[in-house]
C-alpha cells in the first residue's frame, strides 16, 4: 500500500510541458496515440493527487518569492476541470490532428493554463499567461488559411495589449503594496485599472471581446475545443482571486461594477449569437454570454444570508466555470465533428444530420439543454446560484438581465440544434464521427447529466460551503415557466430567426477602422513629416558643404544676393537683379578653390587662436 | 420548414409543461403570501410573462440590429 501523502506535490504544468517536449519522439502512428492517452491520464492523476498547501516556491531575491504551486480549494477545482477536459480534448485530437506541432501547442496551452491556476504570485502568473497567449495562437494558425492567419494576428495583438496592461498593473501593485502574492487588489489607482483591463481582455469584457468570436471559429477543429476552455476561464479564475465582489464609488453609491460588466456581457453575447450563421461563431458569442454569468457571480462575491456571510456569488461563478467548461467543450466537440464530417460550418448549409450522426446529435442536444439551464442538466444548478445571489444582494436589474440571458441562450440553442440536426436537408452527406471523437463526447455528456441530476457531486468540491438548494420548488417552477415559454416562442417565431448567409460586424469594425487609420497615419502624415525633416537636414548640410568649399567667394555671393534682393523694391530702374547676380556668381564661383596655405601657416593660425583663447581666459579670471 | 411526426409529440410535451407550470404558479401564488423582495415577484407567473416579453424583445432587437445596421455580405471585410 502506497501512502499517498508521501508523494510530493508536482506542478501539473511540468507534466504537460514534459509531455509536449517528448511528443515528437513518438512519430505519427499508433505509438503517438498510446502516448497521448497515457499523458492525459498522468495529468489527471497528477492534479488529483494535489493536496492543499504551498510547495515549489523559489526565493529569487530575498523577500521576492516565486510560487509555482499554490494549492487551495479555489485552485484545486479549477485544476480538476482543466485536467479533466484537457484529457477529453487530447482524446478528441487523436484522429483529427495530423501535425505534431498542433498537439505540442495544445499541450503547452493546457499546461500553461494550469500554471496560471496554480501560481501563487503575479510574476509566475504573468509568464504562464503569455505562454498561453502564444501557444493558443498556434492553434489558430494551424488552420493554414489566409483568414485564419489574419485573425491570429488580431488575436495576438489583443493579447499582447492585455499582457502589457497586466504586467503594468502587477508592477504598480507591487510598488504600492510591496507584495506580489496573488490576492484581492485593494489599492485603487492606475494599477487597479490596468490589472482589470489585462484580465478583462482574457475574460472578454465588452468591448475587449472581439478577438474571441473573431478567432475561435477560424481555429482548427481540435484547437477550438482547447481554446473554448482555457483562456476565458483562467481569466475568470484570476478575476475571482483579485476582484471578488469588487465595488466602485459611482455617483455616490457603492456599485459592484464587475457584476454589472457580467450582466452586459451576458445579454450582448446572446443578441449577437442570434445573428450568426457560422456554428462556431454562434458558440463563441455564447462563451462571451456565459462568461458574463461567471463574471457576475464573481463580481457579486459574498452574500449575506440570514445574517451569515456566505460566498454564494463566488461559489456560483466557479461552479458555472466548471459546468460551462463541460458543456461548452462538448458543444465545440460536436460542432467540430459536424465540420469534420461534412466540411460545412454554416447553419444555412447544414441540417438533416440527426439520422446520419445520431450520437453527435444526442450529445449536442444534452449540451444545448445544459447551457440553456434546463432542469436535470448541469447549467441549471450553477446558473441558478448566480441569479439567486443577485436577488439576495438586491441587484434587481442584474437578476433580470441574467434571466434575459437565459431566454436568449435557450433561443439560440434551439436554433443551433434545429438547423444543424433536425431541419430537413436531402443534399447533405455525412457519417458518424470516429470513435476517438465520440468517446470524449459521451463522457462529457454523461458528466453534464450526472452533475445536473446529483448536484452535490459538484457542490462537494466547491471552494466554499454551499448554501443553495438547486431544486427548491419555487425556483424550479419559475425556470420551467421561463424555458417552456421560450420554447413555445421559438417555434412560433422561428421564421424570424432563420439563419442568413451574412456576417455580422461587431465593435471589431471600429478596431479595424482604427487599425487602418493608424497605418494610414504612419504611412502618410508621419512619413511626410519624416521626409521633410530628412530633406531639410540634407539641405542645411549641403549648404555647409557649398560654403566651406570657398568661404570667401561664398560670402561675397551671399552678401551680393541678399543685397540685390533687398535693394530691388526700392530701385525701379534696376530691372534684372537675377542677371546681375549671375554675373557675380560667374566672376567668382565657389568651384574655384581658395588660395591654399602651407601646413606651417595652418599650425601658426591654430597656435594664434590658442594664444587668444588663453588671453581671454586669463583676462576673464583676472576680472572675476 | 416541415415538421416530422416525432416533433408533434415534442410539442405536446412542451404545451403540457407550459400549461402545468403556469397553473402551478397561479396556485402557488394564491396560497402563499410571498415575501416579495422585488415588485415583480408579486406578479403571478412572472417568469412565464417575462419569458414571453423577453423572447420578443431579444428577437426583435437582434433582428433589427442585424437587418438595418450590422449584417454585411460574407466577404465584406475582404472588400473594404
Explain what you see.
The complex is a heterodimer of chains A (624) and B (80). With 624 residues, chain A is mainly α. Chain A has 5 domains: 1-238, no CATH class; 244-501, no CATH class; 507-541; 550-593; 597-624. Helix content of chain A is 69%, strand content 5%. In chain A, strands 1-2 form a two-stranded antiparallel ribbon. A two-stranded antiparallel ribbon of chain A has the order 3-4. In chain A, α9 (221-242) packs parallel to α11, α10 (257-273) packs antiparallel against α11 and α15 packs across α18. Chain B has one domain (5-79). Chain B is built from 3 helices and 1 strand, in the order ααβα. The mean pLDDT of chain B is 75. At the A-B interface, α10, α15, α18 and β7 of A face α1, α2 and β1 of B. β7 of chain A pairs antiparallel with β1 of chain B.
Order of helices and strands of chain B: HHEH
Share of residues in strands of chain B: under 5%
Q: List the chains of the largest interface with their residue counts.
A: A-B, 48 and 41 residues
Total tally of structural domains of chain B: 1
Rg of chain B: 20 Å
**Mean of residue pLDDT values of chain B:** 75
| Order of strands in the sheet with most strands of chain A | 1-2
| Largest sheet features of chain B | none
Number of helices of chain A: 22
Sheet/helix structural class of chain B: mainly alpha
Radius of gyration of chain A: 34 Å
What is the count of β-strands of chain A? 7
The proportion of residues in beta strands of chain A is under 5%
Helix content of chain A: 55-70%
Number of helices of chain B: 3
Overall geometric form of chain A: elongated
- The chain-level structural class of chain A is mainly alpha
Quaternary structure classification: heterodimer
The low-confidence runs of chain A, each spanning 5 or more residues with pLDDT under 50, are none
Q: N-to-C SSE series of chain A?
A: HHEEHHHHHHHEEHHEEHHHHHHHEHHHH
Largest sheet of chain A: 2 strands, antiparallel
